[in-house]
Design a protein that fits this description.
This protein is mainly alpha-helical. The protein is 83% helix and 0% strand. The radius of gyration is 25 Å and the shape is elongated.
């Protein structure tokens, strides 16, 4: 019950949601996976919008809403604000300490060649493949652990069922 109340309180308060999202991005393995997934979503949406004629600022703002993480959404909205003030996109992105340099470099190339839509697409492809690889590693590690846990559960159930029968039989035979 306490967990549910805490969850509802965090969801209701925008400041707490942002803090929880930032903390989630700092988790050892999960945080990196969440960040990559969010960046891939934003980049894929931005790519689609830019390649279909939407200008950069509306594309960035609309794409930020697809991040699925409030902290990443906030970063991309801040990037859009920086671009609106005249800063280059790659420079605005480089201010986010968790953004890999590769992403800034790819988008810097897109800015220089006036092909941002395509570069956002390449960035999305890269992060989607990184996410797929990370998920397959986690799956391959968790799968044997789940088999062992299920075996222990079945063994516990069997012991719980057969132990009383063996005790009754030992009293009958004695």
């Amino acid at each position: 019950a306490g967990f549910l109340l805490t969850y509802r309180a965090i969801k209701a308060n925008p400041v707490w949601r942002l803090r929880a999202a930032r903390r989630g991005l700092r988790l050892p393995f999960v945080g990196e996976l969440l960040a990559k997934t969010s960046i891939a979503r934003v980049a894929r949406t931005a790519s689609t919008l830019l390649e279909n004629g939407v200008t950069l600022l509306p594309a960035l703002r609309a794409s930020a809403a697809t991040a699925g993480n409030v902290a990443v959404e906030r970063v991309f909205l801040d990037v859009a604000d920086g671009v609106e003030r005249g800063r280059p996109l790659a420079e605005s992105l480089a201010n986010w300490k968790d953004m890999p340099a590769l992403a800034s470099q790819i988008l810097s190339t897109g800015e220089e060649t006036a092909n941002l839509g395509r570069m956002f697409g390449k960035l999305a492809d890269f992060y989607e493949s990184e996410t797929d690889a990370a998920v397959s590693v986690v799956t391959s590690v968790i799968e044997p652990a789940l088999v062992v846990i299920m075996g222990l559960i079945v063994a516990g159930i069997l012991i719980a069922l057969y132990l009383p029968m063996f005790e009754v039989l030992s009293h009958i035979g004695a």
